[in-house]
Amino acid sequence: MPKVAPRTLSGFMELLPAQQMKLERMMKILRESYALYGFTPLDTPVIESAEVLLAKGGGETEKQIYRFQKGDSDLALRFDLTVPLAKYVAQHYAELSFPFRRYQIGKVYRGERAQRGRFREFYQADIDVIGDGKLDILNEAEIPAIIYNTFSKLGLRRFKIRVNNRKLLNGFYAMNGMSEKAGDIMRTVDKLDKIGAEKVRELLIDEVKMLPCKAENVLDFMAICGTNEEVVAALERYRGMDETFDQGLDELITVTRYLRDFGVPEENFAVDLTIARGLDYYTGTVYETEMTDHPEIGSVCSGGRYDNLAEYYTDRQLPGVGISIGLTRLFYVLNEQGLLSDELVTAPCDALVLPMTEDMGYAVAAATALRKKGLRTQIYGEKKKFKAKMGYADKIGVPFAVLIGEDEMRDGVLSVKDMQTGEQVRLAPDEAADYIAEKIAALNAGSVIKE
Amino acid sequence: MPKVAPRTLSGFMELLPAQQMKLERMMKILRESYALYGFTPLDTPVIESAEVLLAKGGGETEKQIYRFQKGDSDLALRFDLTVPLAKYVAQHYAELSFPFRRYQIGKVYRGERAQRGRFREFYQADIDVIGDGKLDILNEAEIPAIIYNTFSKLGLRRFKIRVNNRKLLNGFYAMNGMSEKAGDIMRTVDKLDKIGAEKVRELLIDEVKMLPCKAENVLDFMAICGTNEEVVAALERYRGMDETFDQGLDELITVTRYLRDFGVPEENFAVDLTIARGLDYYTGTVYETEMTDHPEIGSVCSGGRYDNLAEYYTDRQLPGVGISIGLTRLFYVLNEQGLLSDELVTAPCDALVLPMTEDMGYAVAAATALRKKGLRTQIYGEKKKFKAKMGYADKIGVPFAVLIGEDEMRDGVLSVKDMQTGEQVRLAPDEAADYIAEKIAALNAGSVIKE
């Protein structure tokens, strides 16, 4: 029979079992961490009507989207989890309670040019809080606090959540009479990290057509740095010149104060005036998250406060605040950098039962005893020589092999072999289960990410 | 601004939060249950090359598939999890260990005619064991044992896993000289439940063109019923007439014996000679699972043993055995029948912290204490009147409200209100956490499905 070459499309991540186990662990931590803060899990279709998905229209998104006809329907695959959330909230408004807090971990699709580390199918892990008309600023501090806790549970320590406020920026541009150029300026300032202050100054003068003194003002403002307290103190010097600025500054001060209440250490967040995010969506606090030792990766978790989640679907004002982890990319980078722990068990099972006898009844009973203690247990039922059986145990990397021969059956025990140390003990099935469970718990005690 | 009506495509399930929580619980149980038997989680792309996905080609599948172009690529959405598994195993053969045991819970796509209870996007929850050249029959008993345990954990009791063996059927048709008509006969016999023996006899004679005596033989064979032991005893009367039949009978006897070893009660499995499944794929044991009180639903979990998982991709013989739960449809039916428990907590959080004070520091600390005990905790930060706050607590159905006013702050306690009984107690934060945690555990002690 002619064969089709089995292959996975470029830009689509498909992991081998041990790697997949690591990703699953990360997803489990995200689910549990998000749930702990009272976010409800949501699941929306991958396919939506193109009209609905592209209600906002235009831009890069439309070019990248997977869009196709099926029968009479013009369909598209979701390219983020925010548009489906907007649709969901507008559609089910009457049945939801506000603030509505949801998390969603799901695949999204963008037909970008394929390149190393860029994916066309990738997981996003989002949390959002949506208010009905109003939303308290406490939420703008809680969101980065959740990210701090989530990253900490994953085992990340060396990261910084960079926080800014769009009102602060808009107010600053207004007080300098630069509001009309704010978009261009922000796009240019965004390059500070990459090209440096000198080049940004040139661009501001030559391309954005700013007076040198105004460009200087912008660069001075963006250069404000130091501890969070020092930054706030420096910003206070601008107070009283623009109402929006003052409001943004008050919000920023409130958010940083709440962040401390939430127990986020000073070293894990920083007020950073260069953060702006999308130009026409965010209206208050904005976030980016940088891995301290890997700034080249860019932000691994971004978001902010917006005023109108669902303006393309409803007249109701639905303000919100949310953040998104680009999970597939984060996983890819952590893996590339060797930051994913190999200590945690990634084998398909904790214990592999190897029966050396014809009859399987005892082996089945042994496996049942181990599973009762929560141990992931596989029975190896293949008729193979002992050496081949042990070879399989080695190859799948199972921590414990449970050997069952005539002797074990007669004595009502199991021979438990620690595959790492080679140590072997004979124990009654229940004792064997406790023995293995304790060692597995110790193996899994560490975190997914090892810095 | 003109609005686009927010809507979800017909045939796509999108649940409200409380319903989604129930589905999530089911998925969690499936994941944990599958893992307990040493299956490793797998995740394959939703989009594959159409050439790869349709390697087998032809049939109903091709008509239902979502297929589209993107750039030069001919793409399609997966319509089951078996074809992607075949691709995966063929592609990664050298890096896998066999038997290879994987589970996958994922969405698949079929552009069927939309009708009530039929979905175009739906979850399948599959387990498969793949051998390299050979695979021990123990696996054919373990698969339904896993389903028994999984369904039991979900809370289902009144179900029956119906087991048959394709060799037994093929052998029976061979000994009657009906091998060529086996396909037509099986398709006709499949209607027994619906149209009864008389009509099936007519069809066998009139349409399949069988001699009346042969049709009688088929009906007699298919009518064999009783306890599993009685069925096996009746089948023993055919022994010695066809080698394939005898082999199938031996396999069936072995599988039923192992099923008992695995602790599957007799009332939850039945040898049923009318089960055949797909005509050209399964080669040994086959399964269907019926909800005893809802036979009209059809099989909620089906599968079987096959000889060649990946014959379209590789020359290697990769036999396997697997089973698939149509999760979305099962969930839909359980929900329609009112079989999903309302006792388990479906609110987005276990405890809702309601601060009555301006300062949020104490409320944040209280929430942190509750979360430390694993309680899903939300802080309600909106500036609303007490009545509106309690109204929100009511509306989201949270089991416990935690009230914080000046008194509580001063005394270092929390006022915990049981929203069901109205009972209110004042406790130190740690005590409050223990108090709530105990009650939440009791609320969640039941199972997802209530029969």
Number of strands of chain A: 16
Most extensive interface: pair and counts? Answer: A-B, 100 and 100 residues
According to CATH, the homologous superfamily of the largest domain in chain A is Bira Bifunctional Protein, Domain 2
Q: Mind summarizing the main beta sheet of chain A?
A: 8 strands, mixed
Which strand order do you get reading across the main beta sheet of chain A?
1-5-6-11-10-9-7-8
Helix content of chain A: 40-55%
List unreliable stretches of 5+ residues of chain A: none
Structural domains of chain A: how many: 2
Please name the CATH architecture of the largest domain in chain A: 2-Layer Sandwich
The quaternary structure here is: homodimer
β content of chain A, as a range? 15-25%
- Helical run tally of chain A: 16
CA-based gyration radius of chain A? 27 Å
The chain-level structural class of chain A is alpha+beta
CATH class of the largest domain in chain A: Alpha Beta
CATH topology of the largest domain in chain A: BirA Bifunctional Protein, domain 2
Mean pLDDT metric of chain A: 94
Structure in words:
2 copies of one chain form a homodimer. Chain A is an alpha+beta fold and 451 residues long. The first copy, chain A, has 2 domains: 320 residues, Bira Bifunctional Protein, Domain 2 (BirA Bifunctional Protein, domain 2, 2-Layer Sandwich), CATH 3.30.930; 93 residues, Anticodon-binding domain (Rossmann fold), CATH 3.40.50.800. The first copy, chain A, is 41% helix and 20% strand. Chain A is built from 16 helices and 16 strands. Chain A has an 8-stranded mixed β-sheet. Chain A has a 5-stranded mixed β-sheet with strand order 13-12-14-15-16, with helices on both faces. A 3-stranded antiparallel β-sheet of chain A has the order 2-4-3. In chain A, α13 links the parallel β12 and β13. In chain A, α10 packs antiparallel against α11. Chain A is elongated and about 90 Å long. The relative contact order of chain A is 0.12. At the A-B interface, α1, β1, β2, β3 and α4 of A face α1, β1, β2, β3 and α4 of B.
